[in-house]
Amino acid sequence: MSMKRVDRDLNRFRQIVRGKIKKDLRKYMSHGEMIGRQGKRLVSIPLPSIDLPQFRYGAKQGGGVGQGEGDVGDPVGQGDPQPGQGEAGSEPGQHVLEVDMTLEELAAILGEELQLPNIQPKGRKNLISEKDRYVGIRRTGPNSLRHFKRTYREALRRQISSGEYDQADPIVVPIREDMRYRSWKETLQPESNAVIIYMMDVSGSMGTEQKELVRITAFWIETWLRSQYKEIEIRYIVHDAAAKEVDQETFYHIREGGGTKISSAYKLCNRLIDERYPASEWNIYPFHFSDGDNWGGGDTRECVELLRNEILPKVNQFCYGQVRSLYGSGRFAHDLEELLGADERVVVSEISERDDIYDTIKDFLGKGK
Amino acid sequence: MKNTRLPANLESAREEIEAHARAYGLDFFPIIYEVLDYRTLYETAAMGGFPTRYPHWRFGMDFDQLMKGHVWQGSTIYEMVINTNPSYAYLLEGNEDVTQKMVMAHVTGHVDFFKHNMWFAHTNRKMLDAMANHATRIQRIIDRIGYDVVEEFIDTCLSLENLIDYHSPYIKRPDAHTPQPLVGEEEPPVAQGLRVERDYMRDYINPPEYLAAQRQKIEDERAKQRRFPEHSQRDILLFLLNYAPLERWQHTVLEIVRDEAYYFAPQGMTKILNEGWASYWHSTIMTQKVASAAEIISFADLHSGVVATGGGRLNPYKLGLELLRDVEDRWNRGRFGKEYDECDDIAAKRTWDRQLGLGRQKIFEIRKLYNDVTFIDEFLTPEFVIENKLFTFRYNRDSDLYEIASREFKEIKEKLLFRLTNFGQPFISIEDGNYNNRGELYLRHRHEGVDLKMDYARDTMRNLQRIWTRPVHLETRIDDKKRLLSFDGSDYTERRID
Description:
The complex is a heterodimer of chains A (369) and B (498).
Chain A: H1 5-23, H2 25-29, H3 33-37, E1 42-46, E2 64-67, E3 98-102, H4 103-113, E4 126-138, H5 148-161, E5 181-191, E6 193-201, H6 208-228, E7 231-239, E8 243-246, H7 248-253, H8 262-276, E9 282-290, H9 296-311, E10 318-323, H10 331-340, E11 346-351, H11 357-365
Parallel strand pairs in A: 6-7, 6-9, 9-10, 10-11
Antiparallel strand pairs in A: 1-3, 4-5, 7-8
Chain B: H1 8-23, E1 31-36, H2 38-46, H3 57-73, E2 79-82, E3 87-92, H4 97-116, H5 127-145, H6 147-158, H7 202-205, H8 208-226, H9 236-243, H10 248-269, H11 271-290, H12 296-306, H13 316-333, H14 337-342, H15 346-350, H16 359-369, H17 372-379, H18 382-387, E4 390-396, E5 401-406, H19 409-420, E6 427-435, E7 440-446, H20 454-468, E8 472-478, E9 481-487, E10 492-496
């Protein structure tokens, strides 16, 4: 039986899904819920239009019959219906068709549609990944690795040399000493390391929507960079007038008051790089998000000095994303453009609303660095 | 090519299982087992159990979801069997022997059901060849017309594939044909009344009232002939095949989609009964005959997985199995009929046992003559509902949750039957193929208390219009008001009718 036909259908299906996502990529990229759906390696993407429409019952007066404990009025267990139960018409709710995608697939679509170049990693490669390869034969091992042919050859050799072998009755019986097993070796493969350092202004003027913009943007940054590097470390720095390192949860939810001193974050970032991520071995991606307010002219000049003399020489590129807030002046982006705009290691992008995330990602990751 | 035959130890287990099954009275087509690795098994499952189907992305989508479910969520298909003669059944490579034995016993039950259940009597047992032919014919069309155009048309047809008459293979219906031309009859008949020999008798033999009645009768007859189709038509796909302006290749594709829909229909009509029957027999054969002492714990574990009910959901395997066992017990002890039903002595009822021993015979009768609807309708009892903790649930708008609505027998039975009637599909029929005398298509949704899913309904009408090419209308009820939805090829309208 030829079973290969499904590959053709599978490819066509993937092509359709890719087409739909690409067509609406800007919309999908502005959705926060995609991150919420993110499983370990899979994202579920709701694609209402891919399902074949049919005349069928709506959910409104629906319901059905179930089985189990509980009193009238108790909620029925939630969760996805199990396969094979649709015919009994008993699963609660109607479902928009969701297509599960691996992050690799999603990254591939992102890269294709935004025409993101593959990154040429810089720096020395570290030896990190291990790979087992079967390279030889040995005398001990588990039965699952027994080498049938070699074992019998050994037995035959032994029987011939001891004169046990009879050509008229060629029975070969291996004994314990004849057993041969495959053996393997671990080989180390060089891979490039990468680290993302997120910095965010958490002073009073950064509200919930601003942080949401950052969170969604970060999701797409990570999706892409993960497809380019095998392992990625992520560090989080928040700052108002002073900076500190935090975990991911805190990064997106902390709220501080007070003024804004961006140089504090850049200093901490620089120290982190010097202590932990030597530029010769790491691909380093600092991303800074703020609403563009900074404390007086002096601090901005200090930021520029820090970038020019310390940070830029060590990193692949430095990205600044400026989200619009009600209170932010948005000055910092202008200053950066003016003072460092000529340096191609610096990328400045403004994110006024969710629809801009698409363009910001293109700005940030479009250089292939 | 990899060897997919049963290994020797399972081959002898198969012989043993089939011998026991025959001794119990099961009678099945020859079964050909193939042992497949999980990828091949899932490929086959995605294509409905058939190795060769026409090219369509839907099979790829099903495969993708099955594989991801397997890899990421650990869900597994153990078994698959298709209704053909001989029947093909697929086992998953690497399963424990006891699993394979249980699956083979289960499969044997299914194949017996395929062979004897009357709802399968009209299915094509050579469907393996038919599916392969369909694939070849559609592939030829694709080569000639182009992939995209054909794919789009297949999408359109699949969106209408449930618009068939699920009972039509078993009932002779007046067909949609209208033999005479509708207009241009040479001489319309005139109401002449009875023959009159003598002129003075005329008013006496043919009084004016009688003539008027005759005229009315002829008029009615002609009006009926002008109706098109003469009777409302449930097999909408057949109507389209007969009357829609399809190109030849489109006609072929639609015919194939309809053919396959009818082939799969009985499986939807007998899900509970068929799975119940197969589970009854895997359980009987394994526990009474095949499973060794060392295997019984593994078997019990597997079996409880098959009949598990979680999160308040109904499991067709469990419902079917329990109801068959209940019937067997009732007929063994004579707990049925007028005398039992009218007995109001609770104590006597509880210990009622006439030692009839008719249980086995009864469930064999059920496997031959019943489908899910008639099975539930006739054999669901209040005692069974209580014992199995059945309930109805409904959606609560305020809490945005589904919640238990009732544990009353009457309501549970009604809801269950409603969900099964027409196999969970809304009743939709063609009432008029020449609506407004302009060749427009008029459909009626027989509303049974649940509205259609409107966004889907609109898209489906678009697809219907694409095939019919003239405007299409659908009469339905929305929020308890009668509505006429219309789509004319570019605009979609909705108006109230009463």
